[in-house]
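Support reply, case 0932

Customer input (verbatim):
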Amino acid sequence: MEGQIEKLGPKGPPSPAHGATATLARDLVGLSREELGDVFAGLGESPYRVKQLWHWIYHRGVRQFSEMPTFNKQLQGLLAESCRVARPEIHRFQESADGTRKWLLGFEDGTEAETVYIPETDRGTLCISSQVGCTLTCRFCHTGTQRLVRNLTAGEIVGQMLIARDHFKEWPSPKEGRRISNVVFMGMGEPLYNYENVAQAIRILMDGEGLALSKRRITLSTAGVVPMIKRAGDDLDVQLAISLHATTDELRDELVPLNRKYPLSELIEACRTYPRAANSRRITFEYVMLKGVNDSLVDAKRLVKLIRGIPAKMNLIPFNPWPEAPYECSTPKAIAAFADVVNAAGYASPVRQPRGQDILAACGQLKSASQRQPKAAERN
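Our regenerated output:
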């Protein structure tokens, strides 16, 4: 059954509102408090204005300075002349038969990325992208077939959250009963290869005077950029997920080519020493189930041995196909037998229910049509 599709904006080059004229004004979304302080200092205003602006942007969801009554008319005018509170442009919105929602979002340079909302009985999870395309070339992932176009800015990352909040009319930012209760960095891209922007965005998401997400409700997923894992734990202290998918270097080199640079031994050691990993803060290992590739009982037993001693849980993901995909999903019987082995070893191993397959919004299915520009065009 096909999901409902609603086109809310043009697909392709940015509209005039997102074009050259708009870029003359500085976008305030994604700036740190210190950077916002510099903006106000440039206008001859006191830094205490930052707290007020933060409230309007991230607690109230306000986009027009004229709707921020704590600023006088003169300051509203000065801000409007040189600044703006922007959002990505919605090029396409789709809703699946199961309630999953997907946005194809356009940015000022004409590139696009996808964001997905997944409703569950006990939570609502927003899956955020960190890059246009992907640095990696994981063979089972549709995004991996698209070359990296560029990193997203902190503002473009936070903007995905603002778009979803707009959609659900979830302003002012509620403390209880949120439709968007969790955020996972599992969309397009490798977050740890865009660390500075991702880290700044996460700090904005966690700021208690705005969007106010708990660090325990934010999950940073990586395919295994080993040198950055400890830094992420020290700096951000959010939940960690590892895209594992194989139990030998030989197979993981094929499925996740990053493994050739950071092999399993180094990745697992980084997980063992991840700051504050404990039974209450377990690392999630993601494992896509590929028929006849990584789904045998031997693989399951090897997996248990590999992660032994790490506070962890296993997230088994039935492979979500996409056009011309090189793999098939494991059979339900094989997945159940695999899960039994892992569960028997004391590790929770839920099987992720595929969501949004009818709109290509499921895990590993995201992709945009954006292409890297020639170097001369990038310079221009």
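We compared this against your earlier run and they match. Two observations from our side: The two ends are 45 Å apart (CA to CA). The chain has two domains: 30-85, 89-371. Please reopen the case if you see a mismatch on your end.
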